[in-house]
Amino acid sequence: xxxxxxxxxxxxxxxxxxxxxxxxxxxxxxxxxxxxxxxxxxxxxxxxxxxxxxxxxxxxxxxxxxxxxxxxxxxxxxxxxxxxxxxxxxxxxxxxxxxxxxxxxxxxxxxxxxxxxxxxxxxxxxxxxxxxxxxxxxxxxxxxxxxxxxxxxxxxxxxxxxxxxxxxxxxxxxxxxxxxxxxxxxxxxxxxxxxxxxxxxxxxxxxxxxxxxxxxxxxxxxxxxxxxxxxxxxxxxxxxxxxxxxxxxxxxxxxxxxxxxxxxxxxxxxxxxxxxxxxxxxxxxxxxxxxxxxxxxxxxxxxxxxxxxxxxxxxxxxxxxxxxxxxxxxxxxxxxxxxxxxxxxxxxxxxxxxxxxxxxxxxxxxxxxxxxxxxxxxxxxxxxxxxxxxxxxxxxxxxxxxxxxxxxxxxxxxxxxxxxxxxxxxxxxxxxxxxxxxxxxxxxxxxxxxxxxxxxxxxxxxxxxxxxxxxxxxxxxxxxx
Length: 481
Prior knowledge:
The chain has 481 residues and is of the alpha/beta class. Helices cover 11% and strands 21% of the residues.
């Protein structure tokens, strides 16, 4: 079975050869074929291809010969399809109607697919069709069924007979409430049912989908079923409870992949235990496509390795370090952490460093007293009193934001001896109780000590920012380099 990276690299190689041969060009930010080359290609394939894409067709063509292999009528404005229309095209493998059936009164009748048994790719994305005909179930050679953003679609016929189906994309079909026969599709590799009306439990559905590489679904799924999908490269789902969420995070920690990004979102009040994870290409195969997450920028776009949690009852622990069942686990390679409305936490500590954490955002932790930089098995005060050299819990931290923590007095413990060597920015808002920042939070290198400055902006809630100096610091704390 080809992996994503093998298919992607092969596709890039083909595109690059076509560009080098001047058969493709970049125009208006898109890759396209030159008009002359396109006309020549269509002339050569005149007998087997019917291409009327983007021509604004109002009626469906009548010329459907038995020699046709590919038909593209996309981005037209077809107003009528005869109810008895049944194209006799046994060799037709690709039919593109995406964006052409915009009127709700234009529907595909059962007769339409009866003589298209060789069809492999069917694209009906962005069409206003409400139902797909039952004859679709007989397209046993179909490999790709694309229905993205069919906003009126309410029914798909039984798919269990489509044993060759590899890709099903119904993302954005918001009125679609069920898809029957999925559990029979053992060769399925791409399944996207996000933004649909399907809220069912998926228990038992994926047991035969051993080739699945891309999975985006609504509804609740069991972690043990997803973990069995060894070929999976992209997942987006909701686990529904802390136990399944933590089980998947443990799996991520055991598997620890250098080229993966993820976004974990927990909202206890909304029963949301959401996971998005992508495993990217081997950098030795395709180094230019490795996505780097930079949290220096204010832009939060991109996936990166981020965790966002809103919880009132649970504590937090790093995967592999939990001591009870009342913790939400986070992976050890998290790069951005955002904790909001977390009443169950009085400090932020793990037994081992979060070495890759670059951005830390804490919002409305009503019971937060201090932020310790701790080590294995000891609290902040014990470490402060027993160690002489800095041992940061967050050695890569560059940006710290704290908002609405009224009980917070000390950052990283009172009289903290610890340093955060890469810290550049600290923002503190609505933290009336905070008293000081430890002088050794910043440990600039000797090479740049004279050129570094740090500045703290402290917002006391009266819309006036006060500049507050840390004890022993020459300059406040909003650090720019």
